C-alpha cells in the first residue's frame, strides 16, 4: 500500500489570548488523504476549518500553538518544518493552495500572464524563451481563456479570477491541493464548474482537501466527508453513505444536512459553543435531542467514524425531487 | 404594493448595470429574484430599498412614488424597508456592540425608550443568545453577526424586506434559521419580501414566486428592440 | 480552563498529555518577532523621553524659581560645567534653563497648532466627503492649491501680517498643516461611506448628521488622532524654522528656534554648546513623539483582527 499524500495525526491548534487564556480552534484532528482522493471538510464558519488549512500551510499567526503532526508523503511534518523549508520546498511545490478570494490572492497590479510566468520560473524552472508557451499551457490546464491572459485581476469576473488562481495553484504539480472555501460568493453554476474542475485536476495521482461550508459542492465531488464542529472532527464518512443511504450518523451532521433547502430546511436549534469555553463533554450535547448523561464525557471518534455516544442509525429521508 | 417601474440604474450613466427592469411585489408576497453573480440584481435591490438613485424609472411604495433616495427619501418611506446584505462584516459598524447595532434604528428615529423591550425580543426571534449581545462584531462569527443584522432590519417593523444574498456566506443550518426568522416575522406582520440571490433551490423553497433576472431583462430588451428593428 | 479541556481530550484519544509547540519563530510572523524587542525598546524609550519632557516643562520653571532672563555678563559663554550643565549664552544666561523654557514654548506651539490643524482638517475633510459633488471638488481643489505653495513661504506670509509673538506662529503653523489631515480624513470617510453599514443606517432612518457623527467620524478619529500626534514634531520644527529666520517669536523669548538662532554668532567663534544643546532639544523630543506615534499606528492597523483567524 502506498503512503497517504497527507496524514494528519492529532493535529491541534490553539491561540494564546491576552490574560493567559486559550482558544481551542482545532482539537485532535486525524485523517489520511490518499492519492486520487478528495476529502471535503465541512462545517459552519468559526468551527476551526480555516485554521486547520492555515496550519497545513504554515500560515498561523504568532499567537498560535500547535500539537500533533501533519505528514506529507515523504515524511515532512508541515507543523514543525521551518519557514525556509516551507517556502522553498513545500508551498506551491508539494501543497498547492486554491484560495478563498482569488481576486485578493492575485497581485492587482500585474497581468495574469506575468503572474503565471513568474510562478513558472520560480516553481518549474522554465527559462525565458519557453515562458510564453508554458504560461499558455498552464492557463489552458485550468480552462483559463488565453484571450484574457493580458488582463489585470480586477478586469476578470469571479469565475475567471478563480480559474487564474487555480492555474497558479496547479503550476507546481503539487501532490496535495488545498482549496479553502474556493466557491464563496460564486453562483451555483460557477460553483459546480469550479469544483468539477478541481476534481478533474486531482485525477489519480493527487489529493484534494476541499474546505467548504457548501454541502452541495462537497456532495458533488467528494469521496469522503469530514464534519467539523466546535474545533473537532465529529464524523468522517464515505460521501455516498453520508449524502445518500444511510446518511450522516452524527446528530450534528444529520441536522446540517437536513437544514438544506432541498431537504427539511429546518435549522439545528441553538448555536455552537464558544471555542474559548467548550464544555467538558460532547460540544453538541446542548443542542442535541438525543443527549443524556453519557454525553457529559467526550465521545471518541470511534471505528465507524462518528464521535457520538448515540449515533443515528435510521436511514435519512431522501431529498425532495 | 412595491412597484419597480422600468428602472435603469448603475454607477456610470453610460454603462448602466440595470436596464429598463420592472417588477412588482404584492403586499405580503414573497418574491425571489434569481440571477448570476454580477448581473445587477444587487443594484436593483438597493434601488428598491431607496438606497441608490436610478438613472430612469420609478419606484412606487404602497402607492406613493419615491421622490428622493438615500437621505433625501422621507424618513417614513425609508424605514418602510428592512434591508439585509450579503456580507455581515461590512454591514455592521465595527464599533457598536450587537445590542447597539440592533437598537441603532430605534435611537435614530427617536424611540430609544423601546430599546429595553424590543432588543431582547428580537434577539430571541433571530436566535441570538443574550450573552452575545454585549459583544462587538469581531467577537462573533459571520452567522451570529448576520442574525444581528437581520434583527436590526426588523426592529422598526418594516412593511417590506429586501434580502440581498442574505445567506450566501452562511452554512446550511444558519441559512435555515435566518429564513425561518424572516418567515416568522412575515407571518405575524404581513410584510412583503424581495429576496435576491443565485441559489435556485433555496429561493424556490423560500419564496412563493421566483423571477429570473434573464426574464426581467430579456422582456424589457425585447420590447425595446422591436421598435428599433422596424 | 483550557488546560482541563486538553487533558479531557487526552483521556479519550491515543495521546496522553498534549505537547504544545509555539508557532512563533518559524512563520512569516517569525521575522516580525525578531524585531519585536527592538520595537518595544524604542516605544519605551520614546515614552520615557516624552514623560521626562512633559515633566520638565511643567515642573522645572515654577520649582527652579530662577530667572531664565537674568543676564550675568560676567558669566557669558561659559562652557558646560557642574554649575551650568549646558553652559551659558553670550549674555551669561544659563542654557539648561533657557532650553527648558524654550522647549515649553515650542511644545505649546506644537501641540496647540497640531490640535487646531487637526480640527480644521477633520472638519474640512469630512465635509467634503459627506457633501460630495461640487462642494467636494471645489474644497479639494482649494486644498491642492494651498498644498502647492511651500509651507514655510505660506507661514512666513501669515506671520508677516502680525506682530511677532506666540499666537501668529501657532496660526501660521496650523493653517499650513491641516491640508494633509483633510486629505486623509476625506479618503477615509469616502471609503467608509460606501460600506453597507451606512446603507443600513440610512434605511434605519438615520439622518445625514447622525450617519456622519455616529458612523463615519468615529471610524476616522484614530487616523486623525495619529495625524495630529505626527504633526506635533513637524510643528515644532516649523516654529523653530520660523524663529530661526527671525520671523517667529521675538528674540528675547526663549524658544528652541530663537535659541539656535541666537547662537549662530557664537558658533562661528567656535563655541559649540549654545547651538548643540537647543538643537538636541529639538531633535530628541520630536523623535520620541514620532516614535510613540509610530507605535500607535501599528496598533490601529487592522492587523489585530487577524490575531484570531476565525
The averaged pLDDT of chain B comes out at 89
Q: From the structure provided, what is the oligomeric state, counting identical versus distinct chains?
A: heterotrimer
The value of Rg of chain B in angstroms is 18 Å
Number of E strands of chain B: 9
Q: From N to C, what is the helix and strand string of chain B?
A: EEEHEEHEHHHHEHEHEH
- The total number of structural domains of chain B is 2
**Strand sequence of the main sheet of chain B, in spatial order?**
6-7-8-3-9
Fraction in beta strands of chain B: 15-25%
CATH A-level architecture of the largest domain in chain B: 3-Layer(aba) Sandwich
- Determine the CATH superfamily of the largest domain in chain B: P-loop containing nucleotide triphosphate hydrolases
Topology, element by element:
The complex is a heterotrimer of chains A (321), B (230) and C (310).
Chain A: E1 6-16, E2 22-33, E3 38-42, H1 49-57, E4 64-72, H2 83-90, E5 95-98, H3 102-105, H4 112-124, H5 128-141, H6 158-171, E6 176-180, H7 188-202, E7 207-212, H8 215-221, E8 224-229, E9 232-238, H9 239-243, H10 251-258
Parallel strand pairs in A: 3-7, 3-8, 5-6, 6-7
Antiparallel strand pairs in A: 1-2, 1-4, 8-9
Chain B: E1 2-9, E2 18-25, E3 30-34, H1 41-48, E4 56-61, E5 64-65, H2 75-78, E6 81-84, H3 88-91, H4 98-108, H5 115-126, H6 142-154, E7 160-164, H7 172-189, E8 192-197, H8 200-206, E9 209-212, H9 213-229
Parallel strand pairs in B: 3-8, 3-9, 6-7, 7-8
Antiparallel strand pairs in B: 1-2, 1-4, 4-5
Chain C: H1 2-12, E1 21-22, H2 28-34, H3 36-64, H4 95-131, H5 133-148, H6 151-160, H7 166-193, H8 196-203, H9 208-244, H10 256-262, H11 264-268, H12 273-300
Architecture overview:
The complex is a heterotrimer of chains A (321), B (230) and C (310). By secondary structure, chain A is an alpha/beta fold. Chain A has a domain at 1-35 and 42-94 and 211-316: Rossmann fold (3-Layer(aba) Sandwich). Helix content of chain A is 30%, strand content 20%. In chain A, helix 7 (188-202) runs parallel beside helix 8 (215-221). Chain B is α/β, with parallel strands linked by helices and 230 residues long. Chain B is built from nine helices and nine strands. Chain B has helices at 41-48, 75-78, 88-91, 98-108, 115-126, 142-154, 172-189, 200-206, 213-229, and strands at 2-9, 18-25, 30-34, 56-61, 64-65, 81-84, 160-164, 192-197, 209-212. Chain B has a five-stranded parallel beta sheet with strand order 6-7-8-3-9, sandwiched between helices. Chain B is globular, with a radius of gyration of 18 Å. Chain C has helices at residues 2-12, 28-34, 36-64, 95-131, 133-148, 151-160, 166-193, 196-203, 208-244, 256-262, 264-268, 273-300; one strand at 21-22. Chain C has a domain at 108-249: MetI-like fold (Orthogonal Bundle). Mean pLDDT of chain C is 77; it is low at 1-16, 25-34 and 302-310. By secondary structure, chain C is mostly helical. The interface between A and C is large, with 44 and 31 residues.
